[in-house]
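Figure 6 in text form: structure in, sequence out.
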């Protein structure tokens, strides 16, 4: 059945020409508006369908051919999955206006061991990283709220409900928001984002065009973040 589906996609490619549809999975919606707008200007005939399930479920979709491309952290021990690095993001501490750390130029994560944390739900990579970084700093975060989207956490931080560890580009997606962004000095907090696709499934011409566009789009941003 998989071979039959792939054969149908190849035939559809021959008919579609510059048209087509790409199924993209990403749990990082804040990264998408600018790049999707730029891609639409370049390839107006290609439409993007967006999926946002947790990582393991999306990997299964990728292997079944239900998703063409997936923004994710690197995948280990998943045969048949190709991946290329797109972006390295610095993760900073988000604190509300008037917080006792709001004017600091940098912070050690151990300083906020007793603060209430806002985080993504279990199964999301940023949630895993938040817990890992806090454990490296010697404590388990007291998580008082769980959500599905980093930008939503930023708004909740602004409302004074807690603090959060968030990638720098989240702030750039909502530049008007009054939430302090404080670099974390210890431990070093970064994550690397990859683009994944299945080597075992046929990748349509539209998906290949979008994949190549993404790699070129993120190249300048990736160079701007120190290693």
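Output sequence:
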């Amino acid at each position: 059945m998989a071979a039959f589906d792939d054969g149908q996609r190849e035939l559809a490619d021959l008919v579609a020409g510059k048209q087509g549809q790409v199924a993209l999975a990403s749990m990082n919606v804040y990264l998408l508006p600018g790049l999707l707008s730029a891609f639409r200007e370049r390839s107006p005939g290609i439409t993007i369908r967006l999926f946002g399930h947790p990582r393991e479920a999306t990997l299964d979709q990728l292997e079944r051919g239900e998703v063409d491309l997936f923004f994710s952290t690197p995948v280990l021990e998943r045969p048949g999955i190709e991946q290329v690095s797109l972006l390295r993001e610095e993760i900073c501490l988000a604190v509300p206006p008037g917080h006792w750390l709001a004017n600091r130029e940098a912070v050690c994560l151990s300083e906020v061991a007793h603060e209430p944390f806002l985080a993504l739900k279990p199964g999301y990579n940023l949630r895993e990283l938040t817990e890992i970084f806090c454990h490296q700093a010697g404590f388990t975060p007291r998580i008082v709220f769980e959500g599905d989207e980093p930008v939503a956490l930023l708004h909740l931080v602004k409302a004074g409900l807690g603090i959060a560890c968030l990638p720098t580009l989240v702030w750039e997606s909502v530049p008007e928001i009054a939430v302090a962004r404080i670099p974390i000095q210890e431990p070093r907090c970064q994550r690397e984002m990859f683009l994944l696709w299945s080597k075992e499934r046929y990748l349509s011409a539209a998906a290949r065009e979008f994949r190549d566009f993404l790699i070129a789009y993120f190249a300048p941003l990736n160079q701007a973040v120190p290693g």
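Caption detail: The two ends are 44 Å apart (CA to CA).
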